Amino acid sequence: MIRFDRRLVQNFDWVMVAAVLVVALLGLLNLYSATHLSRGYGSTVFIKQAYYFLAGFGLIFLIVLVDYKVLIKWNYLLYGIMIILLLLVLLVGGEVAGSQRWINLGFFRLQPSEPAKLLLVITLASYYYRKDTGKGFALKELLLPMGLTAVPVLMILKQPDLGTALMLVFIFVSMTLFVKLKWSTLGVLAGIGVSFLPLVWQFYLKPYQRQRIMTFLSPESDPLGSGYHIAQSKIAVGSGATFGKGYMQGTQAQLDFLPERHTDFAFSVWAEEWGFIGSLFFLACYFFIVLWGLNIALSARDKFGVLLAFGIVSLLFWQAFINLGMVLGLLPVVGMPMPLFSYGGSSLLTTLAGIGILINIRMRRFTTP
């Protein structure tokens, strides 16, 4: 499985590494500004994130040593590990601010719902690769992937973590639409999705989650309560104007008006300090990674590589899209970090593991399936 082929070194994707490194450095720069005034807190968070990046880049170089096709054999084992970890969270996980999402490993607090996103991509890519006949998937052939998605979604909703649960749904929808479906199947799936919305609203969403959605529809109704996050974020983004207020000069962040400024609302800090031009530069760097990932999918040597790369790109895209919509007040606040930019060890290591798989696919595009 581990092959020291000279062609692998020659085809190593330094373009992706360079792009990720640029976004990572921008994220660290922003993180220091967002947290440096908190005594004993800013420096700790910044140093931790730097260590997570070092560990993540090391993980990338380990992942590229093994041919990505072994994931076809490992996918159900990895899926089983994911379910066990999500179950452990519900049984023995630590609770923070009413949410039970983490397992304390002593040296690291693992949030299993983060690697669950990548593991679901691997599971769905493996299934669709095995079952694809080229004639289009019928509804009965989608029952298993629907079930494989529904189990972790329901477990994550119990934590509760609406944002991550929605991400798993978006991954499933994106990858399912990417493979060939029969039109009748597409119609039935759309009907099922619409019919389940009232049930999810009534029985699975917590009161505060329903309140966040209502606040999104009418943010001015409670500007000092449930609408506070959105209001302060929009003020921060708007006050950045064209060129921003300058590094570490943003009043919303530095005067502690902006909540969760190192995690969910990290981009608000960046927009306030660097303005529209700086925000445009960051988004160009980030979405270059997304476009390069799509290029990797197009050049993959086999259908599994195509599905796997597309799934990882959809993971990166939807997380960024939801986070940006959230901080701009265009989507409800659901607790979604910006990949590679927001603080968080589990999220960062999962994202870099996905990047490692993309590089792996790119490196092996010249080999025979």
Number of domain modules = 2
- Which of globular, elongated, flat, extended, rod-shaped describes the shape? globular
Could you name the ranges where pLDDT drops below 50 across 5 or more consecutive residues? none
Helix-residue proportion? 55-70%
Estimate the strand proportion. under 5%
- Whole-number average pLDDT? 85
How many distinct helices?
A: 14
Structural category is mainly alpha
Computed over alpha carbons, the radius of gyration is 21 Å
Query: Between the first and last Cα atoms, what is the distance in angstroms?
Result: 14 Å
N-to-C order of helices and strands: HHHHEEEHHHHHHHHHH
Strand line-up across the major sheet: 1-2-3
How would you explain this protein's 3D organization?
The protein has 369 residues and is an all-alpha fold. It has 2 domains: 1-66 and 208-364, no CATH class; 81-205, no CATH class. The chain has 14 helices and 3 strands. A 3-stranded antiparallel sheet has the order 1-2-3, covered by helices on one side. A hairpin with a 4-residue loop joins strand 2 and strand 3 (109-110). Helix 5 packs antiparallel against helix 13 (303-327).
